[in-house]
Write a structure and sequence with these properties.
Blueprint: H1 2-33, H2 39-74, H3 82-105, H4 107-115, H5 120-133, H6 136-152, H7 157-181, H8 193-215, H9 236-264, H10 274-308, H11 312-339, H12 341-346, H13 355-365, H14 369-384, H15 389-414, H16 423-450, H17 455-482, H18 494-518, H19 524-534
Helix pairs in contact: 1-7, 1-10, 1-19, 2-3, 2-4, 2-5, 2-6, 2-9, 2-10, 3-6, 4-5, 5-8, 6-8, 7-8, 9-15, 10-11, 10-13, 10-14, 11-14, 11-17, 11-18, 13-16, 14-16, 15-16, 17-18
Length: 538
C-alpha cells in the first residue's frame, strides 16, 4: 500500500500542477479569442476538439482498457514482454499515421457534421484551423501509447507531468499571438491566414512536445523497442478482439458528442455554446483529473494484477477501498465548486456579466462528478478481467440518453419553451443524467458478475461525506456573499475570479474536513497519508 500511496501522491502533484497550468492556459486563451458570444472561440473549439474526437475512436478503449492489462500479462513472458510491446508499438504507430492522414483529408466533412448549423464563414474558419489541429491525433496517440506502457511498468510520474510542458508552451504562444495581433480576436473576420497558422502551430506543437518528453523516460522501462511488422504469434489477435468492443464504444461516444455540439452550435453568437461547454467541462474535469486519475490509476494497475491472478476477494477489496477514497476527496471538491461556481465561471468569460450564464452550464455538469468516479473504477474492473463487451453495453445506454436529451433541448428551444441562452445548460444536464444512469447500470452488472462489490459499504461512506459537504457548501456560498456576490470584486476580472474561487474553496474544504473529523471518518487517514507524502521529512 505504501507504493500505491507514493504513486498516488506523485500523480496527484503532477496532475495538480498540470491542471493549474491548464487553468492559466485557458485564462490566456479566453483573453485571446473570447468564450461567450464569441463565434471565433466556437470555431476554434470545434477544430481543436476534432483530433480528440478522432483519436478517441482508436485509443479510448484500446489503450486504457486493453493495453495495461495486456502489458501486465506480457511482463510474465520470458522476454519480459519485449516482443509483444515492439509489435504493439509498430502497429500502433502505423494506425496513428494512417488515421491522421485520413482525418486531414476528411477535415471539411468532419467540420460539417459537427458544426453544420453554423454560418459558412464560421465553418470555413473551423476548417482552416482543423488542418493545423488534426496532426495532434498522432502525437496524442504516441503520448498515450508510451504513457500507458510506463503506467503498466509502474512508472507513473512522467505521464502526469508531461502536460505541464504542453501548457507552458501554449501559454507562451497565446501571449505572443496577443502581443502581435491584439486581443480579443472574437470575430471570424479577424482571423487572417497568418493568425490561423500561429494558433495552429502553438496548440499542435505543444502536444508534440508533450509526447516527446515521455519518450525521454522510455529507458526506465528497460524494454528494447524496435520496429517489428510481424504481427502474428504474440497475442495481438486477443488485443484486436478486445479492442473491437471498445472501438464501437468510442464511435458511439464520438457520435453522441458530435450531435451535442451540433445542437449547441444553435446558440453560437447568442449565448453559451460550444466554447463555453468546453471550458465548463474543463472545470468539471479539474477535480476529476486530479483526484480520480491520480488515485485511480495506481489502483487500476494493482486491480489488473489481482484480476489476472484470479484473486477475486482482493479485487472486491480494491473496488470498495478505491471508491470510498475517491468519493471522500471528490465530495469536498464538489461542494467547493458548487459554492464557487460563479467566480469560477468568471475565469472563462471576458465580461463579468457573462459569468452567471457560464456558471449555469458548469452547475448542470456537476451532478455526474461522483457517479463518474464510481464508473471509472467499475469500468476498469471489467477491463481488468478482459471484458470490454459489458462496458460497451452500458455505454450504449449512456450515448442513447445523451442524444435523446440533446434532441429534447433542441425541441424546447424551437418551441420557445426555454431561451436559446439556456440551451447549453440543458444539454449539459442531460449528459449528467445519462452518466448517472450509466453508472447505476454498470454497478449492477459488476455486482452480478463478482457476487457483490461492497456497494452498501461505499454507499454509506458517500452518504457520510454528503452530510459534511452540504453545510460546507453553505459556508462557501456565505463566503461568496460576503465577498460581494455578483456585484463584488471577485467578478471584476478573470484573475480576481480565480482568487475569489480559491478563497471560497478553502473555506469549504476546511469546514468539510473539520466535520468529517468530528464524524471520525476513517477515510481521513488517506488525506493524512497524502499530506505526509508531500510534507518535507525531518
Amino acid at each position: 500500500m505504501s507504493s500505491l500511496g507514493r504513486a498516488s501522491a506523485l500523480l496527484a502533484a503532477g496532475t495538480m500542477v498540470s491542471r493549474v497550468t491548464g487553468l492559466l492556459r485557458t485564462i490566456v486563451l479566453v483573453g485571446l479569442i473570447g468564450a461567450n458570444r464569441a463565434p471565433a472561440a466556437d470555431a476554434f473549439n470545434i477544430a481543436n476538439q476534432l483530433p480528440n474526437d478522432v483519436y478517441a475512436i482508436i485509443s479510448a478503449g484500446v489503450l486504457t482498457a486493453v493495453i495495461v492489462p495486456q502489458i501486465v500479462q506480457a511482463a510474465a513472458h520470458s522476454d519480459r514482454g519485449n516482443a509483444f510491446i515492439s509489435k504493439l508499438f509498430t502497429l500502433g504507430t502505423v494506425v496513428l499515421l494512417i488515421t491522421t492522414a485520413v482525418a486531414m483529408l476528411a477535415a471539411p466533412w468532419l467540420v460539417w457534421i459537427t458544426f453544420g448549423r453554423a454560418p459558412e464563414e464560421q465553418q470555413a474558419l473551423a476548417i482552416a484551423l482543423s488542418y493545423w489541429c488534426l496532426p495532434q491525433i498522432f502525437f496524442y496517440g504516441l503520448y498515450s501509447l508510451v504513457g500507458e506502457t510506463l503506467n503498466a511498468r509502474r512508472i507513473f510520474g512522467p505521464f502526469t507531468w508531461a502536460p505541464v510542458a504542453n501548457n507552458v508552451v501554449s501559454i507562451a504562444g497565446f501571449l505572443a499571438i496577443g502581443a502581435l495581433f491584439g486581443t480579443p480576436l472574437e470575430q471570424v473576420n479577424q482571423w487572417t491566414p497568418d493568425r490561423i497558422a500561429w494558433l495552429g502551430v502553438t496548440v499542435t506543437g505543444a502536444i508534440a512536445i508533450q509526447a516527446g518528453i515521455l519518450l525521454a523516460f522510455w529507458p526506465r522501462t528497460q524494454l528494447r523497442l524496435r520496429p517489428d511488422f510481424r504481427w502474428r504469434g504474440v497475442g495481438l489477435g486477443n488485443v484486436g478482439r478486445m479492442a473491437g468492443w471498445t472501438l464501437l464504444m468510442a464511435l458511439m461516444g464520438l457520435a453522441a458528442g458530435i450531435y451535442q455540439n451540433n445542437v449547441a452550435s444553435l446558440a453560437s453568437g447568442e449565448g453559451p455554446s460550444v466554447a463555453v461547454m468546453s471550458y465548463a467541462w474543463l472545470v468539471f474535469m479539474l477535480p476529476y483529473s486530479i483526484i480520480v486519475l491520480s488515485i485511480g490509476t495506481p489502483y487500476f494497475t494493482q486491480l489488473a494484477e489481482h484480476a489476472h491472478a484470479g484473486d477475486h476477494d482482493q479485487v472486491r477489496a480494491d473496488i470498495s477501498r478505491s471508491i470510498r477514497i475517491l468519493a471522500f476527496f471528490l465530495m469536498g471538491a464538489l461542494a467547493a465548486v458548487v459554492a464557487a461556481v460563479v467566480p469560477t465561471s468568471r475565469v472563462f468569460t471576458t465580461v463579468g456579466s457573462d459569468a452567471p450564464d457560464t456558471a449555469l452550464v458548469l452547475l448542470a455538469y456537476l451532478p455526474a462528478l461522483i457517479p463518474l468516479a464510481v464508473l471509472f473504477i467499475v469500468q476498469r474492473t471489467f477491463y481488468a478481467y478482459g471484458d470490454t463487451r459489458t462496458p460497451f453495453l452500458f455505454t450504449l445506454v449512456q450515448c442513447a440518453l445523451i442524444v435523446i436529451t440533446a434532441f429534447t433541448a433542441q425541441l424546447l428551444v424551437s418551441a420557445d419553451a426555454i431561451p436559446v441562452e439556456n440551451l447549453a445548460a440543458v444539454i449539459a444536464l442531460g449528459q449528467a443524467l445519462a452518466s448517472t444512469i450509466q453508472t447505476i447500470l454498470a454497478v449492477w452488472l459488476l455486482h452480478r458478475r463478482l457476487g457483490g462489490i461492497g456497494t452498501a459499504t461505499w454507499m454509506i461512506a458517500i452518504g457520510r461525506f454528503a452530510v459534511a459537504a452540504i453545510p460546507a457548501a453553505a459556508a462557501g456560498w456565505g463566503t461568496y456573499l460576503l465577498l460581494g456576490g455578483s456585484a463584488g470584486w471577485a467578478l471584476a476580472s478573470q484573475l480576481t475570479g480565480a482568487l475569489g474561487a480559491a478563497i471560497i474553496a478553502a473555506v469549504v474544504l476546511v469546514v468539510y474536513i473539520g466535520l468529517l473529523a468530528l464524524l471520525r471518518a476513517p477515510e481521513l487517514d488517506a488525506l493524512k497519508g497524502l499530506v505526509r507524502r508531500f510534507a518535507p521529512s525531518r
